């Protein structure tokens, strides 16, 4: 939940946003598909305020940015979406929405994929202290693991069928202002995602099917964004702040 050291944000922001934290719809789609075919009041930040380590990832997935205009193009070899280097919110959101549900169980482990997704995050700048910002970012990363991506048992079920999922973002991205954001650097973005599941049967033959989801995320595109270390990203490039449990419509 919001730190007591910033009560104005806690009182106003989360009254507006309510109890939404992550993309639970994606989990429902992935869990249902696997079983049938083979700042927020509900978030409690961890006690530690140490900044989350930013791994230097090395991973087939679509990219919404031109070749070369990404943090690390090689991550596509591991079945992940490359993070674009851009100041354009719509371009970045398309990649974020795809990244949270694009993976290949034959090319990486769940933990490796999650460590990579952690590198997309930047602190929520509505918190005044560095400790509060670090704790809140950790909470968002924890909720990514608990609510957005498939749990380990679902990953293992997909892996047993050499499963992979690719997400494609289609249609317009709806952008809205973030409450209590004095910098006006952050946006809440909502878009439609089509998930394509590909699996093999006992004979090794592949089959695919699609499912749809509507997802909202919060991003920061402005001078206060924190770039991934040892990359071409710079302060001001867009970064991820958090996911929501349900799509937020204006």
Automatic annotation (TrEMBL):
<feature type="transmembrane region" description="Helical">
    <location>
        <begin position="12"/>
        <end position="34"/>
    </location>
</feature>
<feature type="compositionally biased region" description="Low complexity">
    <location>
        <begin position="57"/>
        <end position="67"/>
    </location>
</feature>
<protein>
    <submittedName>
        <fullName>Uncharacterized protein</fullName>
    </submittedName>
</protein>
<feature type="region of interest" description="Disordered">
    <location>
        <begin position="38"/>
        <end position="69"/>
    </location>
</feature>
<keyword id="KW-0472">Membrane</keyword>
<keyword id="KW-1133">Transmembrane helix</keyword>
<keyword id="KW-0812">Transmembrane</keyword>
